[in-house]
Amino acid sequence: MPLNGKKVLVTAGPTYEAIDPVRFIGNHSSGKMGFALADEFANLGAEVTLIAGPTAQQSTNALKRVDVISAEDMLKACISAFADSDITVMCAAVADYRPKVVASQKIKKQADDLTLELEKTADILATLGKEKKSGQILVGFALETHDEENYAKGKLEKKNLDLVVLNSLNDKGAGFKSDTNKITIFNKALEKTVFEMKSKTEVAKDICTAILKMIK
Ligand code: C5P
User: Fold this and answer.
1) Are 15 and 69 in contact (CB under 8 A)?
2) How far apart are CA 18 and CA 98, in angstroms?
3) Over 9-33, what HEC string results?
4) HEC assignment per residue over 100-140
5) Is there a contact between 9 and 51 (Cβ–Cβ < 8 Å)?
6) Which residues pair with 88 in a beta bridge?
7) How many CB atoms lie within 10 A of CB 110?
8) Ligand 1 centre distance from Cα of residue 191 (Å)
9) Mean pLDDT, 10 residues at a time, over the chain (216 residues)?
10) Gap between the Cα atoms of 156 and 187, Å rounded
11) What are the residue boundaries of the DNA/pantothenate metabolism flavoprotein C-terminal domain, all occurrences included (predicted)?
12) To test ligand 1's pocket by mutation, which of 70, 123, 159 has the most ligand atoms within 8 angstroms of CB?
């Protein structure tokens, strides 16, 4: 199989950023795309580590699965797995902000409005991009609502990626919870490949094929 002996790291799902012991800030990511990718890499013979935020998804293959909750947990898990990884695909919808203070007890209803102060989380993908050594392949996702292609290309350069996979919320049937996705892939030369709407399993195959082309 083409990826025998290769180590692959995939992130999937959302992250949850605690507000207090019962509440969090999260997002609609289902984890389906990342799990489909992890399964496809395993089908190709790779040794896969899947770092997953809170999700109901189950992997069908034997993977090393690491469950995390917050962006900070995901960052630590990624840093420890990345150095060993030949191919890394960051599919998780990581929170960009988290509450600056996590209340140790449930916040009681106030008489008036409540303001939460948020601080930035670390950009995991950009952190790994800085650590990337020659021979390692790093792939990111971009989910955009407008000016998609320019943002996607900007991410490829800023985060030191080898490929960026763009999915737009403007395409019906693409994105967070659906079983289908419509992607465009940009490589380092900013060459673009546009794909049809497909099941996430088929999309995962297309992404793996694009990565295999770079290895050969
Ligand atoms: O910049 P933006 O968040 O849109 O980039 C999306 C890409 O970056 C995805 O591949 C996502 O997994 C990754 N990301 C990350 N850590 C963050 C934010 C995004 O790894 N804090």
Assistant:
1) yes
2) 7
3) EEEECECCEEEECCEEECCCCCCHH
4) CCCCCCCCCCCCCCCCCCEEECCCHHHHHHHHCCCCCEEEE
5) yes
6) 9, 138
7) 8
8) 21
9) 97 98 96 96 97 93 93 98 98 98 96 97 98 97 90 95 90 78 94 95 97 91
10) 8
11) 3-213
12) 123
CA angle (117, 120, 122) in 5-degree steps: 150
Residue 104: exposure state from Cβ atoms within 10 A (0-12, 13-18, ≥19): exposed
Interatomic CA distance for residues 31 and 94, integer angstroms: 11
Joined tokens for residue 1: 């199989």
Task: State residue 168's pLDDT score.
Answer: 78
- As a whole number of angstroms, the distance between CA 98 and CA 200 comes to 29
CA-nearest residue for atom 1, ligand 1, is: 155
